[in-house]
Amino acid sequence: MQKIETKKEVLHQRAIAGQVQQAKLDAAVEAYAFRPQVEADENRVKKETESRQIRKETVLDKADAVQLFKNHGYTIDNLMKDIRYKVNACLTEAGLAGTSYGKEVVRGLAQPA
Known about the structure:
By secondary structure, the protein is mainly alpha-helical. The chain is built from six helices and no strands.
């Protein structure tokens, strides 16, 4: 019985805390020196922004595909070529990677050529 009362008290305190926080936010907004009044304009909201327009007009050239630094580690492409990694990822998602079954499955897979 005491647990139920405690949970009710906690929920009530959280509700009050949320109301207090909302009241503080409302008071802060009302205290702004300048609050712009903007009417809702459907056309303004739907039109293209300047940055999006620039991105659409940008054309890539060969210099954009230059690799500046060599990657000495693993890339996602290298990992996905390895069937052991794919199977281990699936086993991990299923929660079976740490089990003896999961270890045997990964051990039984062929080594990459």
